[in-house]
Amino acid sequence: MELREYVRVLMRYWWLIVGLVIVVAAGSLLLRGAPPPRFQASVRFTIGVNAPPATQVSGYDPILSSFQASEYIRDDFVEVIQSDLFADDVNAQLARAGAPNLKVSKGNIAGAIEKQRRLMSLTITWHNAAEAQQIADAAVKNLSENNAKYFAQLGAVGATVTVIDHPVAAPVGASLRDQLDIPIRAALALLAGIALAFVLDYLDGSIREARDAEALGLRVIGEIPRGK
Predict the structure, then answer these.
(1) How many Cβ atoms from other residues are within 10 Å of residue 11's Cβ?
(2) CA–CA separation, 183 and 63 (whole Å)
(3) What's the CA gap between 90 and 32, in Å, rounded?
(4) pLDDT per position as a tens digit, 11-30
(5) What is the DSSP string of 146-193?
(6) Distance between CA 28 and CA 58 in Å, rounded?
(7) Distance CA 149, CA 169 (A)
(8) Predicted local confidence at residue 60, as pLDDT
(9) Closest listed residue to residue 168, CA positions, set 135, 139, 141, 133
(10) Residue 128 phi/psi, 5° resolution?
(11) Cβ neighbours, 10 Å, residue 163
(12) Angle between the 129-150 and 62-81 helix axes, to the nearest 10 degrees?
């Protein structure tokens, strides 16, 4: 089939293609509804290990060892923050703080390492601004009190967590997935419409033009022009 034949098929069924795109886009817009509000509360902090007194251990540099231990903690930080164990401990902190109805999962908690692994951040995503701040406070408190539980290399000493920026909840805009949802559906409807047009043209045995008759082996001796 030549390129002109493709164009001819698309022009014949343009109403089907356009109509399908409009129906799918309008239906998606009306049925999906407004996305629920989301808020994020982020906390930035440092975490480090205090060097033991030099009189207790000999044969090493205590300051250098503290820096190395802090690096080990930062390497594991993101995995610890985004674990089921950490989420369960945050829920326990919330229950002790008088908010037993607040239950978070690891999907609501994200961690990141900034400034060449010197600063760390913890982000809570929630549907309520005040509750997001409350959860972030509980998460930082849990990290301060129970970090020795997650970082076995510290023994029973634990690490020191210093909060640099307190959590401030802010609304989160629509995600990229939400923004592209309707355009992707419309694009798929366009492809489906084009495919359907070629299927209908293949199944259609009507003779509309001289070339259709010639394709059947008939000789055309005249053609009446299409009226305007």
Answers:
(1) 9
(2) 56
(3) 33
(4) 888 999 999 999 998 988 88
(5) HHHHH-GGGTTS--EEEEEEEEEEEE----HHHHHHHHHHHHHHHHHH
(6) 69
(7) 28
(8) 46
(9) 133
(10) -135, 130
(11) 16
(12) 130
| Greater model confidence, 157 or 26 | 26
**CA torsion sign, 123 to 129 to 132 to 138?**
positive
List 15's β-bridge partners, or say none. none
Give the pLDDT confidence of 53-70 residue by residue, as tens digits: 545 545 444 444 555 556
pLDDT tens for residues 46-56? 877 665 554 55
Identify the structural domains of the chain with CATH numbers, from first to last.
Answer: 3-34+176-215 (no CATH), 39-171 (3.30.70.1130)
44 close to 119: Cβ distance less than 8 angstroms = yes
| pTM for this predicted structure | 0.60
DSSP β-bridge partners for residue 113: 120
Q: In the structure encoding, which two tokens stand for residue 19, read together? A: 């109509």
Q: Which two tokens stand for residue 63?
A: 């300051």
Structure tokens at 66: 């503290």
Task: Extract the runs of DSSP E, i.e. beta strands, from the chain.
Answer: 39-48, 109-114, 119-126, 160-171
CB 24 within 8 A of CB 189: yes
**Alpha-carbon dihedral of residues 147, 149, 154, 155, nearest 10 degrees?**
140
